[in-house]
């Protein structure tokens, strides 16, 4: 296999081209951050070479396949799911404690200065 074009420098014979996250982001029309985050969470295939993410053409093809969304069949009748009724608490059950907000620090400091 002879490559005439390569994402980095001159063509190398017999080796797959390796793409950096920024190059993959351009190909996929997304952010470099997204590519790195998906790789970090191991949601997409990648190679870890030299302490950084690298992607082959097969990796990029697999990424596209992983995030592909297939069309739904609109002719199918929708499935109706019965709603489960929520359980309500009775009025006498438990005690209700009203919440009280904290006094802002600047107001506390002002009351301390005025009291002194």
TrEMBL record:
Helix-turn-helix domain spans which residues?
Answer: 18-62
Q: Which organism is it from?
A: Longispora fulva
Q: Which Gene Ontology terms cover its molecular function? A: helicase activity
**What is the name of this protein?**
Superfamily I DNA/RNA helicase
Q: Which UniProt keywords apply?
A: ATP-binding, Helicase, Hydrolase, Nucleotide-binding
